[in-house]
Amino acid sequence: MVVRDLKDGSSIVSTQEDHAELSAQFAAHWGNKDFSKLRPYDSMVFATTYHDSGYREWEGNPPMNVEKGRPFGHRETIPSFEPLELAAYVRNIEWVRAHDPYAGLLVSMHRTGLWHNRYQTFTKPQGRLRERSPEVQAVKKELEARQEEEKKSLGKADAKFERQLWFNYRTLQVYDLLSLYFCCDGHSGDDHLKEDAVAPVPVAYDSKEEIDLRIVPTGANSVKISPYPFDISPLKVSVRARLIPSGSFASPDKCSEAYHKASRCLLSFAIAG
Fold first, then answer.
1. How far apart are CA 170 and CA 164, in angstroms?
2. What is the DSSP letter of 187?
């Protein structure tokens, strides 16, 4: 789950698929006279939409952080949960691959990249390398070996294909990071949006130019992004969420009941150039 804890003790919670749907809104509108439109477009939007769908296997009844009165957040460690997570990630990659092999390759790269700080392709926001368990390392090795086979099958070891693939991988990370900004990371301690940046961001398939994508709040639910990468301005986006009241619970069952009864809302944002 993607979680934002508020000052009053309540929490705004979105599923990973809700967060991914917001990411896909960025992918769908990416590209203008200064930024390349995505290609293959449909595969990129499909990959972005379903890049985190492995989480659906447990987010219908998510594990509960009873102490905090809400589901565990995506950066919190869920005790004894790693085997289930790994199996679900692999099944989701297989599902995406069955529908669109190119999208499946990107989703696989996204997953293995997260285990390696997005392959260290970003300096803003700063990530961190973490020691991974032997089980994660084994799955990562298997997925990356499969990725090399898929690259040869899809691109026939073509250098242009490889450049385009890595451009697409990096832009997928941009949409992921922008979505996380609006869902949780972009909110300061007083629950307002804050200035931030995503960098370096590739600009065009046929260029090595990279830029810092600067995010500056202009209102409670609006920001200015420069340079501006989308095809319309303002771009209006939204993400589904639940508002969980503050409180602690005596058991996971009571915590889960509060989650299921939580009021639903649609968080909307406007992005201008």
1. 10
2. B
The amino acid present at 5, given as its one-letter code, is D
Model pLDDT, residue 209? 96
Task: Report the chain's terminal Cα–Cα distance, integer Å.
Answer: 30
Q: What is the pLDDT of residues 209-219, one digit of tens each?
A: 999 999 999 99
Helix or strand holding residue 23 (H, E): helix 16-28
Tokens of 111: 């997953």
Number of compact structural domains in the chain = 1
Q: How sure is the predictor about 199, in pLDDT bands with cuts at 50, 70 and 90?
A: very high
Distance CA 199, CA 197 (A): 6
- Boundaries of domain holding 202: 2-272
At 22 the pLDDT is: 98
Tokens of 232: 């319309």
Give residue 67's identity as a one-letter amino acid code. Answer: E
Q: Are 198 and 227 in contact (CB under 8 A)?
A: no
**Residue appearing with tokens 């697409």:** 168
C-beta neighbour count of 209 within 10 angstroms = 11
Total-model pTM? 0.95
Q: How far apart are CA 155 and CA 134, in angstroms?
A: 31
Question: Percent of the chain having pLDDT more than 90?
Answer: 80
Residue type at position 227? P
Reported as a pLDDT band with limits 50, 70 and 90, residue 155 is confident
Inter-residue contact 10 to 245 (CB < 8 Å): yes
Which helix (H) or strand (E) covers residue 224, if one does?
strand 222-226
Tokens read off for 217? 């709040």
CA–CA dist 1, 74 (Å, integer):
5
How far apart CA 110 and CA 27 sit, in angstroms, is 15
180 vs 140: CA distance, rounded Å: 23
What is the rounded CA–CA span in Å between residue 49 and residue 255?
29
